[in-house]
Design goal:
- By secondary structure, the protein is of the alpha/beta class.
- The chain has 2 domains: about 100 residues, 60s Ribosomal Protein L30, Chain: A, CATH 3.30.1330.30; about 190 residues, 3-Layer(aba) Sandwich (Alpha/beta knot).
- Helix content is about 25%, strand content about 20%.
- The protein is built from 12 helices and 20 strands.
- The strands form 5 sheets. Strands 6, 7, 8, 11, 17, 18, 19 and 20 form an 8-stranded mixed sheet that branches. A 5-stranded mixed sheet has the order 1-4-3-5-2. A 3-stranded antiparallel sheet has the order 14-15-16, with no helix packed on it.
- Helix 7 runs parallel beside helix 12.
- The longest helix has 13 residues.
- The protein is elongated, with a radius of gyration of 21 Å.
- The N and C termini lie far apart (about 50 Å).
Length: about 375
């Protein structure tokens, strides 16, 4: 075993510390653009799972008091990469937040595989449509990995699963379950590619999410702002009552986080889009000059062509209960969960084979999307 390459942090402006000084996840995502960027893994267990999955460590940032403790094994696995060491107070100035268990690892991203490769051999797949909160995305990944799902697919507007908070909440399971973005053409962002392409330099709208998905700045001690996403009312899943008290996960943002919406042909509001004469969503420019595209849910057809029955978690008059035996008899099933803001698009629901809801009692009409995913995955991850 080589001797650890330990470097004392005496200069906060050291160029090599730049990944840890970044206050924007987008900067990390595009760090080596057009090649895949980097991400930060936090805590020994999460870093260990990333290493197990073959991710390349670039450097470590470690609290001095822990270098001979719980991080020792991780340091030993990382070879001769730089290990930057400082006291807790200095680390807080660098990162802007209190580090979980005192260690961060900057790691190089992998190029994402195509959808067909991720789904090959999968019997149960979770599909996230425009889920923008990193806490929710991380929790859903953890549920999917634990409850017998084989892969996770995301639409381009979803939060990046490799954002620090998503990785931390997932407890590193984001490295244990295959995932990728669906083949939907993304908004015309700088450096953007078609999601699902194995080429490097991927960029997607979840990287710079709208108000419903923004992380708020919380000033830690010392007055430095940092991104800490906290669940709020916007990410609670609103469920509509149905006959017999049945409900489903849909959602609506609070007034502080509503996006500009216009009604579609199906009566459902879509962010920054307006229907054309055929009822399809066309692009309109946002205030920042970026073009946003609300496509019809072509990915549902893609899933069906790969042999999946599709189940939309939504409330309709024809909705079946999540414990309907027909669902568990399906050889291949894709369970689709909608955004915290609007739930699933009408076009998605209409394209699916099943519309599924979760029975509730005591007048409860709401579930967080991550909680809804746990119930659905527990029930539908089993087959009869």
């Amino acid at each position: 075993m080589c001797k650890p390459n330990i470097i004392e942090v005496n200069d906060l402006d050291l160029e090599e510390l730049r990944p840890y000084l970044c206050r924007s996840e987008v900067q990390l995502l595009r760090y080596y653009e057009p090649a895949p960027g980097i991400f930060l893994a936090e805590s020994p267990r999460v870093i260990g799972r990333a290493l197990d999955a073959g991710y390349e460590p670039l450097s470590l940032l470690v609290e001095r008091s822990l270098i001979e403790g719980q991080t020792k094994e991780i340091i030993g696995r990382c070879g001769d990469i730089p290990i930057y060491v400082a006291d807790r107070e200095v680390l807080l100035q660098i990162t802007g937040f209190g580090m979980t268990q005192g260690v961060l690892c900057a790691m190089r991203r992998h190029a994402l595989p195509p959808v067909e490769k991720v789904c090959r051999g999968a019997a149960r797949v979770a599909v996230l449509e425009d889920v923008v909160n990193p806490t929710n995305v991380g929790a859903i990944f953890r549920c999917a990995a634990a409850l017998n799902f084989d892969a996770v697919l995301l639409t381009p507007a979803c939060c990046d699963p490799l954002y620090r908070r998503s990785v931390r909440v997932s407890m590193g399971t984001v490295f244990q379950i295959p995932w990728t973005y669906l083949d939907v053409t993304e908004p015309n962002c700088a450096g953007g590619l078609k999601i699902g392409s194995p080429a490097g330099g991927m960029s997607h709208p979840g990287a710079e999410s709208d108000n419903a998905g923004k992380m708020k700045t919380v000033p830690p001690a010392g007055g430095m702002g940092h991104p800490e996403a906290e669940p709020d009312n916007a990410e609670k899943m609103k469920t509509g009552p149905a006959t017999g008290g049945m409900s489903h996960p849909g959602a609506e943002p609070d007034n502080a986080e509503k996006m500009k919406t216009v009604p579609s042909a199906g009566g459902m509001s879509h962010p920054e889009a307006e229907p054309d004469h055929e009822g399809k969503m066309k692009t309109v420019s946002s205030a920042e000059g970026m073009s946003h595209l609300e496509t019809e849910s072509d990915y549902v057809g893609q899933l069906k062509r790969m042999g999946f029955a599709t189940a939309a978690m939504a409330l309709r008059e024809d909705s079946c209960s999540v414990d309907d035996p027909r669902l568990m008899k399906e050889e291949r099933l894709a369970v689709i969960l909608g955004t915290e803001g609007e739930g699933l698009r009408d076009s998605t629901i209409n394209a699916c084979d099943y519309t599924v809801m979760i029975p509730m009692t005591h007048g409860v009409d709401s579930l967080n999307v991550a909680a809804a995913s746990a119930i659905a995955f527990w029930q539908l991850g089993r087959r009869i």
